[in-house]
Amino acid sequence: MTAAPVLTIVTYHYIRPIAGSAWPGIKGLEVERFRGQLDYIQRHYTPVGAELLFAEARGEKPEWPARPLLLTFDDGYFDHYHHAFKEMRRRGLKGAFFAPTQSLLDRRLLDVNKVHFVLAAESDHRKLASEIDAHLASMLPGDSTAAIAGLHAAMRKPSRWDPAETVYVKRVLQRGPSADVRSAIAGALFRKYVSADIPAFAEQLYLTPAQAREMISEGMHFGSHGDQHIWFDHSSVDEQRQDLENSLRLRTTLGLKDGEYSICYPYGGYSAPSLDLARQYGFTLGFTTRLDLNAVSRDTKFLELARIDAGADVPSGADAPVSSWTKRVLC
Ligand SMILES: [Zn+2]
């Protein structure tokens, strides 16, 4: 329809009934709101699958519909199979799903998810921060006071989503002192506040490889989200390479189409070496958390696609007032 369409890509995480559920504190999207967003999207946009982007990246100049929009889902939650996929199939919509291999294939509970549920279980995040500092004081060698003060200075800052205390809890447990220390603290807090049966929790939280294959057979795209969900831009090149290599088993296990490999950088974190590695391992599309729309052309950086956030940036309801993001593609 148009030579250079502007593609909107939307990011989803948890989608579930939240109010009145066992986890009212989890940061996610109510299923009802998700359905309302699909109503809004179907009124103002044309949802497309990832195959159009792959074709464009190959230089095939595919025919784009008016106001294309790609729905993307991070982290491989059972929510995505049960709430998103089933609703999308009913409406004949496609989307792209990104699952870390440790959770999808090894059925291990990722630290990032332990932290989400600890934060949901204990609303006093200042208290959690203090408990983390107590763990750090007992685990770090020597006088840990200066090290902990350094972590506070670097990480206790509000973000687009969270107040400073919450950001501190997340950041220390995502990229604090060392992987071993972080994991030990996340595990201890999870067992204290959420559940002692970590394998059972993981089994319920993540969709399964069989469900992923079913989704693929219905036209959904699956891509890499790394192996352990690490921050690539805070990891050495060797650590990044190792994580990416470990994630490649996704391709054979799910029978992904050769030449249609995508990666969604965990936390949106990536650096120049990440892009080199992504090219080296045959990834064609890369999804970031850079907040923008994508003018699709020869100059598009297909490994650095921008996305908007479902929770903050997409209205719910066919009759909802049009957002500023939508106005940008309506003209
Ligand atoms: Zn993620």
Features:
2 domains, binds zinc ion, 9 strands, single chain, two-stranded parallel sheet, 331 residues, 7-stranded mixed sheet, globular, TIM Barrel, 48% helix, alpha/beta
Topology, please?
Elements: E1 6-12, H1 31-44, E2 46-47, H2 50-57, E3 68-74, H3 78-91, E4 96-99, H4 101-104, H5 111-121, H6 125-139, H7 145-155, H8 164-175, H9 179-193, H10 198-205, H11 209-217, E5 221-224, H12 237-247, H13 249-254, E6 262-264, H14 272-280, E7 285-287, E8 294-295, E9 308-309, H15 310-313, H16 324-330
Parallel strand pairs: 1-3, 1-9, 2-3, 3-4, 4-5, 6-7
Antiparallel strand pairs: 1-8
Helix pairs in contact: 5-8, 5-9, 6-8, 8-9, 12-14
Describe the structure.
This protein is about 50% helix and about 10% strand. It is of the alpha/beta class. Strands 1, 2, 3, 4, 5, 8 and 9 form a 7-stranded mixed β-sheet that branches. A two-stranded parallel ribbon has the order 6-7. The longest helix has 15 residues, at about 125-140. The radius of gyration is 20 Å and the shape is globular. It starts with 5 loop residues before the first strand and ends with a helix. The relative contact order is 0.17. Bound molecules: zinc ion.
Straight-line distance between termini:
15 Å
Mean pLDDT across the residues is 95
Largest sheet: 7 strands, mixed
DSSP, total strands: 9
Radius of gyration: 20 Å
* Secondary structure tally, helices: 16
Main structural class: alpha/beta
State the shape: globular
Q: How many structural domains?
A: 2
List unreliable stretches of 5+ residues: none
CATH architecture of the largest domain: Alpha-Beta Barrel
Order of SSEs = EHEHEHEHHHHHHHHEHHEHEEEHH
Q: Superfamily at the CATH H level of the largest domain?
A: Glycoside hydrolase/deacetylase
Instruction: Identify every distinct bound molecule in the structure, by name, code or SMILES.
Output: zinc ion
CATH fold call of the largest domain = TIM Barrel
Q: Strand content of the residues, in percent?
A: 5-15%
CATH class of the largest domain: Alpha Beta
Helix content: 40-55%
